[in-house]
Amino acid sequence: MRNIFILLGPPGAGKGSVAGELSLLIKVPVIASGDLLRENVRNGTPLGLKAKKYMEAGELVPDGIVIEMIGAKVSEPNCSKGFILDGFPRTLAQAEMLDGIRDAEDLFNVFYLKADDDFLIRRLSNRRVCGNCGKIYHLVNLPPAKEGVCDTCGGTLVQRKDDTEEVIKKSLEVYKDLTAPLLKYYEDKGLLHVVAGDISIGYMMDCIKKIMKW
Ligand code: AMP
Fold first, then answer.
1. Contact, 30 vs 20, CB < 8 A?
2. Based on C-alpha coordinates, what's the Rg of the chain?
3. Residues 6+ apart with CB under 8 A from 22
4. 113 near 197, Cβ under 8 Å?
5. Residue 54 CA: which ligand 1 atom is closest?
6. What is the pLDDT of residues 27-48, one digit of tens each?
7. What three-state secondary structure class fits 21?
8. Atom of ligand 1 nearest to the CA of 62
9. H or E segment to which residue 84 belongs
10. Ligand 1: residue whose CA is nearest its atom 2
11. For the CA of 171, the nearest atom of ligand 1
């Protein structure tokens, strides 16, 4: 039996932060499709070379590429007790792939972190990420103790290339076209839980802990 968590929601709704907290709690790894893709771009792999132009424009990387990448990751031994998906699925084809690898006894937790566009644009344009350990900061709500330096590892904080207002607006549009239909897909299966994405991570985790199966 695996515990599979799916975190749905627009960019900036807190999926990455929630995934990190959940992973500490239930001790299964986070698989963040965006992080895996960025790693491939950084390392100049063939997959990264194909994905780069889509990512920089705030568009989705084609299903074939992402499905193969995630399929390989979830079959690694460290995922035998389950995994937390952050940023996958983002299309119906990706959701169908997950249904295909799901066993009858697996626990399936689907959470939708909901927030409106103005809030997301404000949050994302103030987001900074540690270039070393990946910890996420917010310049106003969650600033580091020392400007530009990660509290945890001392790494340098950077702004993601796609955290500019233009790219954020594009990826919100893409989200509405391609990813929002997934809400109905999981709702129809009776699996969807909705949680506010515009509250603190602590409150979000309190809500999630009350509902989740584990
Ligand atoms: P994220 O870090 O989740 O915001 O993802 C950053 C970018 O990676 C997105 O804007 C997409 O270009 C790409 N990406 C991440 N996950 C997926 C996915 N499941 N399907 C297609 N593209 C993705």
1. yes
2. 17
3. 5, 30, 84, 205, 208
4. yes
5. 12
6. 999 999 999 999 999 999 999 9
7. helix
8. 21
9. strand 82-86
10. 34
11. 10
Residue whose CA is at the smallest distance from ligand 1 atom 14: 34
Kind plus residue range of the DSSP H or E element containing 208: helix 201-211
The closest-lying atom of ligand 1 relative to the alpha carbon of residue 167 is 10
Spatial CB neighbours of 128, under 8 Å, sequence gap ≥ 6? 136, 137, 138, 139, 144, 157, 158, 159
Q: What is the pTM of this model?
A: 0.90
Q: Which residue has the higher pLDDT, 165 or 94?
A: 94
Q: Which two tokens stand for residue 190?
A: 């009776």
Look at ligand 1, atom 19, and give the residue with the nearest C-alpha: 88
> Which residues line ligand 1 at a C-beta cut-off of 6 Å?
11, 33-34, 37, 54-55, 58-61, 66, 87-88, 90, 94, 162, 171
φ/ψ of 139, rounded to 5, equals -60, -30
pLDDT bucket at 214, cuts 50 / 70 / 90 = confident
